[in-house]
């Protein structure tokens, strides 16, 4: 499994609504994420709007392509785009900044 961590910036004035939307994600969106390889997917939000996402997937490229092929993702991304800064017309699920993994406990524990 590939572990992917990413960052986006939520507009500070939209944080509460963003949290409300994610407290009740559409059931068809949840199913699409699970079916396209988004596992152990979590979002973390700081009070200043910095959003950190984490997902485990066999391939982030395949997971993104799978979601891009769904109608529900197009609707969700269109609605969510207005919550973010600095995307310049790119969908949030394609415009995130991927963070480099520099430590993983299990990897180091498994070393000889």
Automatic annotation (TrEMBL):
Gene3D superfamilies hit by this protein: 3.30.70.100
Alphabetical GO biological process terms: rhamnose catabolic process
Keyword Isomerase attributed: yes
Enzyme Commission numbers on file: 5.1.3.32
Keywords: Isomerase
Top-level taxon of the source organism: Bacteria
Annotated GO MF terms: L-rhamnose mutarotase activity
Protein's name according to its UniProt entry: L-rhamnose mutarotase
Lineage, highest ranks first: Bacteria, Bacillati, Actinomycetota, Actinomycetes, Propionibacteriales
């Amino acid at each position: 499994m590939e572990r992917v961590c990413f960052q986006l910036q939520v507009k500070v004035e939209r944080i509460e609504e963003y949290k409300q939307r994610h407290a009740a994600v559409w059931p068809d969106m949840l199913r699409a994420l699970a079916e396209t390889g988004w596992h152990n997917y979590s979002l973390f939000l700081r009070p200043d709007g910095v959003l950190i996402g984490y997902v485990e997937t066999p391939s982030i490229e395949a997971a993104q392509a799978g979601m891009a092929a769904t109608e529900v993702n197009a609707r969700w991304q269109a609605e969510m785009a207005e919550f973010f800064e600095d995307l310049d017309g790119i969908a949030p699920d394609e415009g995130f900044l991927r963070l480099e993994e520099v430590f993983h406990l299990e990897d180091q524990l498994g070393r000889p």
